Structures are given as structure tokens and as C-alpha cells.
Amino acid sequence: MVSVRGDCCGFGACIGGGLILSSKKTAKEGSGVIKIGAIVPLTSPIVGDWLNSGIDLAVDEINAKGGVSGKMIQVVYEDSMMDSKTAVTAFKKLTEIDNVDVIISANSQVAVPLKPLVEEKKIPMISALVAAPGFSVGNDYVFRYHPSGDGEASMMLEYAQKELKINEVSIVYENNEYGVSVFNAMKKDFENKGGKIISAEAINPDGKDVRTSLLKIAEKSPQAVYFVGNSNGYIESMKQFKQLKINAVCLTAANIISVKPIESAEGCYFTNPEFAVDSKNETTKLFVSAYSKKYGKDPIYVNAEAYDMVYLIAEAVKTKGIKNIKDGLLGIGGFDATMGTISFDKNGDALLPQRVGQVVNGKFVFNK
Question: Which residues touch 172 (CB under 8 Å, ≥6 apart)?
């Protein structure tokens, strides 16, 4: 694999130092390289190596087969630290110094602030783990490879109404751009379907004082509590919900994978992209086998999202060329990926199938 890990210490200060090359091939190969700038959390205790492990595996595979139209893929990594200011600095370095051809990013709090910069630079960005509603709307260079948070909530609450006979719900959401936007969208959607939001509590993303909010929720005696978030506040509220033994059904989305140990979320229902290690899809089987062999463990859907994004970029370069990755991505239809047969809608959102699961005996169990 050709990869570079950068240290974006104040942008200009990182030139000439803090770079670790994992290959003798460098950016000076010019037109012989497809340069991907990856702004992902490399040191996050929540996310860990979920993104870079999938990216690295895909790059290894593609380069081992001769690259894309004879061009090797090189990844320049920057640690987003799941922080917007850090991400903006990283973006400027990657586009103004490293001259990357495309950006991979992850997490709403990182990717959303990059949108105006992406449009200004006219460089395509494809993002995983970004559930902010409307993320891809109104920007031709922004792509999403993850379900939208309002779509996740809509599916979960519809399931709760029809299958669990739940019609009164309280919501616990992180008080950040992602949490607030999902809350507003899901509240409107659920009420339009005849449901009732009987209370809502905004919590600190840092996880402080969530117990007080949960006790307020418990006083309202909801049938269910839906949790929205992507930071420590979300994780702590899920854990303390279980510890307080609140008599309500737990509902949430794919971020449940960040709750550890997962037994802390025992019984909780959630939505998840339709990725399964026992899938019959040939592409998925090959990915699961290769990932397990390389890393000694089964992949989760986030690894698959990262892996697929590299292959989607490669397909875009193959069909439209390195200078037209945006058009190449928009033109993708019926692409066989680990997450299913993939196309992008007019806004740049990948049309990813989802499913409902539940934590049972410390394991993720999915509906057939």
C-alpha cells in the first residue's frame, strides 16, 4: 500500500516533518498516482481503526492488481480527532500542500464544516458515518456513504409503531449539529405518522449530567426512549438508561456499535446498514474473508463503508478519469459493493439498504 500519515500541527508547521511513508513511492510520481486525502479519526477511543483498516485493505487490493488504469492509489491520512477545527486545518493541508484528488471524511461534526471548503475548492468528498439530515443537498461535490439520521429514525420509529405497538416516545439527543438536526426531523416525521413525542432532553456531547436528563425522561413514563448522538453523551446516556432500569423500550440507530460493552445496551432495538458477515453476496464474502485474514477479526459495517468508498472512487476514476471523480461518482449505478448493489441519488447520497436489529445476550441479532 502507498500511504502517508501526516501530522497537521498548525498546517504550515507540518511540512517537512511528521510524515511517515509506508512505501518508497511518493507523491512526486505525479500523474501515476491517485491521491486520496483521508480526514478520519485515527486516535479516537470511540472509533479506533474502523475507517483506516477498511481503506487500507481496499488500497492494498487495488494496487496489487495494478491500480486504476495503471495509476497507483496513495492515501494521505490526517487525524480528524473528531473535531471541526482540526478537520478544517487538515483539509487545507491536503488540498493546498498535498494536492489530493479526492477527500474521504467521517462523522458529521467533521464532514459538515468541510462542505463550503469542498465547494470552494471543487474537490469531491465522500463521507462515512455522516448521518446529518440534508448533508449532501445543494453541493455537487459532497457525497455520503451512510444512511441519513432522519431516515434511520423514521425506519426505527415506523418499526416501533407497527411491530412493537409503541406510539409515545421520549427522545434523548446530543446538543450538537447532528443531534439537533436529527431530533427536529424525526419529531416532525413521527408526529405526521400519528405518533407522540411526550418529552425530549438535549444532553451534553461530553457525557456530563446525563443522569439528570434521564430521570426527567423517566418521570414522563414513555413507552420508549429514542437515543440520538455520536459522542460520549450518547454512549453515557445509553449505559445509564440501563443502569437506572428505566421502564421503557430502548430505540436507537447504527451508532449503537460505539457502546461498549455492548451488554450495556441489552434489549435495545436499532437500525443498521444491511451488511452481514454471513452474507451470500460474493463481494461481501470476499471482503469478509480478506479483512478477517488481515486483521484477525470479523469486520463491522463501518469497515465495509470505508472499504467500499475506495472502490467507488476507483470506479469513478476508471469511468470518468482522475479530473472528473465527481461526475464518475454521480454516474455510478448498480455497483456491486459489500453493502449491496449501490447507486447514488441526485443529491449524492448512496442508496443503502437498512435493517432492524436488537441486542440479545450481548450480540447483535437482526430480523430476517
Answer: 200, 201, 203, 210, 213, 214, 217, 225, 226, 227, 228, 229, 237, 241
What's the Cα-to-Cα distance from 307 to each of 146, 185, 355, rounded to whole Å?
13, 30, 20
The domain 2-147+279-354 is placed in CATH, from the list 3.40.50.2300, 3.40.50.300, 3.30.160.140, 3.20.20.70, at 3.40.50.2300
Classify 53 as helix, strand or coil: helix
Q: How far from the centroid of its chain's Cα atoms is residue 293's Cα?
A: 24
Query: What does pTM read for this prediction?
Result: 0.87
Tens place of pLDDT for every residue, the chain, 368 residues?
555 555 544 444 343 333 333 333 333 344 589 999 999 999 876 676 889 999 999 999 999 999 999 999 999 999 999 899 999 999 999 999 999 999 999 999 899 999 999 999 999 999 999 999 999 999 999 999 999 999 999 999 999 999 999 999 999 999 988 899 899 999 999 999 999 999 999 999 988 889 999 999 999 999 999 999 988 999 999 999 999 999 999 999 999 998 999 999 999 999 999 898 999 999 999 999 999 999 999 999 999 999 999 999 999 999 999 999 999 999 999 999 999 899 999 999 999 989 999 999 999 998 76
Pick among 3.10.450.710, 3.40.50.2300, 3.30.428.10, 3.40.50.261: CATH of 149-252: 3.40.50.2300
Grid coordinates representing 330 are 454521480
